[in-house]
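Allow me, if you will, to draw on your knowledge of protein folds for a short while. The matter concerns a single protein, recorded as an amino acid sequence and a row of backbone structure tokens. Could you please explain, in whatever detail you think fit, how the structure tokens follow from the sequence? I remain grateful for any guidance, and I place the record below:

…
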Amino acid sequence: MRELIVGPDTLTPPYPILVEGTVVEGFGRGGKQLGIPTANLPSSVVDQALENIPIGVYYGWAQVQDDIVRPMVMSLGWNPYFKNEKRSGEVHIIHEFKDDFYGKQMKVAILAYIRAEKDYTSLEALVEDIQCDIRAAQESLKRTEYAAVQSSSFFNQS
């Protein structure tokens, strides 16, 4: 069992890392194979804005277009289980959406690192770890300084 509170009690540099971009189509695995849909950041954001942070899993807040700001977990890396040849930034917004949002603008506030990227021996083990990441994000975001980012000016700009 992993810890449910991840990261220091207060935000420390380099966080928050604020990025935005148009949601692009990914590999089509998040929702279909894993049951955990993701919104993919464009490669320009992954290659430039996120080039200096370690690959791994992060948590924070995300907003699509003018929807409300919701908790998220993000995988930044190569996804070794799937043998990706390109680094990707895949954001799972912790909410059930009826429709996809390809082509819509997404803002992401990355607040802390959860864990390193891993290779898995089974799809079930990967899904189980993602579910642990989601629980850790939900609990960690309840802390005052982390929760405050949800209503920050980054998300409230039009």
